[in-house]
Please model this.
Amino acid sequence: MTRSGTGIAQKGGPEQESVFKTSTAVRYALDLVFTILVFVATMIGLVVLAVLLIDIARDGVPRLSWEFLTGFPSISPERSGVYPALLGSLWLLVITAIVSVPLGVGAALYLQEYAPDTWLTRLIEVNVSNLAGVPSIIYGLLGLGIFVNLLGPITGGQSIVSGALTLALLILPVVIIATREALRAIPDSVREGGFALGATRWEVIRGHLLPMALPGALTGTILALSRAIGETAPLIVVGAATYITFVPEGPLSAYSALPIAIYDFVSRPQEAFQIAAAAGIVVLMVVLLLTNSVAIWLRNKYQRRG
Model:
């Protein structure tokens, strides 16, 4: 029986080896094709982005000046500036981050570490994922109904607070999903080791899970805030002004924002306003890069510590 089995194995050996080699060659060829396709897709995206950035920079950078940054909107394109819109965007960015990050991280911690696996929890998870894909105009209508009309005496109606809370609702699902994925990627052995040493659940979260999950959570927060700072539709719905000649004095003040100012410039027929719009886009990108740089620095700091 042993010799017979050996003979059969030896007889079928070369055929199996040939099939294996053919399969390996095909798989390596498919892998090479896929690598080339992914590389081409990446380069197409980068080339298109580079062309857009170069075109905008070529039109907008010559228009940049201290007067443009500190000037107020005007009917004259040569005298128009973005100072009120720039301050309004900074106000919105700060308040949105203050509201959305603690709420998003806290909700993710509860859903991942505390909530039992019930139908209600699964329903909440599905709805959070669905909310991440809802169009921004829907959040604008929600903010108009709740923060502007219903809570107007508290939020000041068409104020910075109303706009920031609307943007916080917009990016909250993204922050929750990113933080949950970061927590889910941590091995269960970390939790079990903490419990074995007598630590409570909160002590394990505070001392181990949260520091390890912060890099991933901050990555999601960076993407979410980048989306928020460039949104126009929800801000128009909740009452952001397209033309103001004063700076916001506080969270309850009327305001404008850089995307609104750019929209106003683009809607004007004069070519000089189109150049001003390109300059406003450059300013918006610089603000975005600076704020993202701070978030990336924090992410890398906690990543090295973890």
Q: What stands out?
A: The chain is about 80% helix and 0% strand.
